[in-house]
Design goal:
8 strands; Mannose-Binding Protein A, Chain A; two-stranded antiparallel sheet
Length: 219
């Protein structure tokens, strides 16, 4: 039996035909979770480094024309609230699905689920029950998107430490060890911990993370 083979030019045309709609859809996205972290645990190079990383991933996905900001809060003098960094919304994922229409809905009855919290490539992030689990997302934030007060480190020294400290994480799949508000929280589930001090890549992986964080188009 003869198997029909596509000519090289036709194969290229078909590949382009199927790639264009996906790329066009990603160009319209205004929210994603990073597909991979910078690789230094919770040391993201501060807010500036995290924003730059969001911009870099967005550009690679065809959405670099927007101004991207990391959903991260900081502590101490001049503390910054994550909710104040990300614009007004609405926000849609790489498949065009709206995850929240504004800041109030984002921190209330939003549409963030394992199936809608997509990375910049339009892929679902591993969650509880998957191997490896990567659902711990760095936020350094309280449930309402504001910064933590007090002396307890919840930002790994404002995203500059890959050893000592702790960072608050949320669960991208809205699942945890218990059926409670913290386990179901997308942005404020528990602080990191681990043998290296709480902020290394190994520490983050030990509790079900990988140094990932959320990115929002602020304009």
């Amino acid at each position: 039996m003869k198997v029909a083979r596509l000519s090289a030019p036709l194969a290229v045309c078909l590949a382009f035909f199927y790639a264009v709609p996906a790329q066009a859809q990603q160009a319209n996205m205004t929210f994603f979770v990073t597909s991979v972290g910078p690789g230094k645990g919770a040391d993201l190079g501060g807010l500036a480094g995290a924003d730059q990383y969001c911009q870099q991933l967005a550009a690679a996905a065809g959405a670099g024309a927007k101004a991207w900001r990391a959903y991260l809060s900081t502590q101490g003098n001049g503390a910054v609230n994550a909710r104040d960094r990300i614009g007004k919304g609405p926000w849609v994922n790489a498949k065009g699905v709206t995850i929240a229409k504004d800041v109030a809905e984002l921190h209330g009855a939003n549409n963030l689920t394992k199936q809608t919290v997509l990375n910049e490539k339009g892929e679902v992030t591993n969650g509880r029950g998957d191997t490896p689990n990567r659902h711990d997302i760095l936020t350094g934030s309280q449930p309402d998107g504001t910064a933590f007060a007090g002396s307890d480190d919840r930002t790994c020294k404002n995203y500059s430490s890959s050893t000592q400290g702790a960072v608050m994480v949320g669960h991208s799949d809205r699942q945890g060890l218990r059926d409670d508000d913290a386990s179901r929280s997308w942005n404020s589930s528990h602080p990191s911990r681990g043998p290296d001090g709480g902020c290394s890549q190994a520490d983050l992986r030990s509790t079900g993370g990988d140094g990932l964080f959320y990115c929002f188009a602020s304009n």
